[in-house]
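Posting this for the archive.
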Amino acid sequence: MRRSNFHDHVAPALQPAHEPTKSRLYVYCLAAMAEKDYYQLLGVKKNATEDEIKRAYRTLAKKYHPDKNKGNKEAENKFKEIYEAYAVLSDKEKRAQYDRLGAEAFSFGGGGQNPFAGFDFSQFMGGGGRRSGRTARGAGPAGFTDIFSDLFGAGGQFAEEMPLRGNDINAELTIGFREAVLGSTMDLTVNGGHIKVKIPEGVADGQTIRLRGKGTPGSSGAPSGDLNVLVHVKSHPFFERRGDDIHINLPVTIGEAVRGAQIEVPTIHGAVKARIPAGTQGGQTFRLTGKGVKRKNGSYGDHYYRVEIVVPPDAPADAVQKIESHYAENPRANLKSAL
């Protein structure tokens, strides 16, 4: 069965019913390109780089090529349109004119230039077409010959599919405070499949974990894309993370604060015995070195506990009087200077 080639699919869109001269062919191409948004046709932004435009063109040309969409007229027309768009956007000067003036820049009546000038269509119109003595490599818009040789082969037929890296996948995962600080392994469902996600020790809320090769598979042996997991960390009822440090409010009794005491301080790494000195005031903060969050360099932050003195709601009156008798002066006396 005869394979279709470039002449079968693109040439009919560029030629009127009778055989045209080259100049008539140009006019016909340019008229067809009017009123089209070339950036939209290729699916790129207006500030797209040359490489981005070329990649978009390669991808779309393979997707809509009639050899892959036999009998699909819509795909065939799309194939012709992206060909036209690339003719202008792949040429720096013509693209600049298009950005300034739009499609009107390429109408002969408006003094515009022909985007296909210097490009020999005959080499793609039929697998055995005669080439001129001068090589066409690099001729026309941004090396059209190179592109078509890659896509369709030397004879205009559709070549073997180029290897393309798979797309990245973005996902989100919510984990507990403890899993974030100590690290863990979580299950994540992506596109119907289950993936084990290793949570590194010390991951922060809003951080992204990249799993290389866990995205969509590549084509023709190309590598798969990556899986990017955005991490959300739940708050903890007692612990608060501030950078690489962890803070907690620690309740103590009046007696412990007055006399001093050895107390048990909860940390994310387990309980630690610590001592508060006699005469500890409410709001005073103490530090446990190295009991915080693991840093990138392997060291650990600190754990801070802030003393909260708990007053019994039904303390006997005589007990209250005894406590008040130990105050030499009004504890708020120094605040009068603020008035």
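The chain has three domains: 6-152, 169-233, 240-338. Residues 1-7, 9-34, 107-111, 116-140 have pLDDT under 50 and may be disordered.
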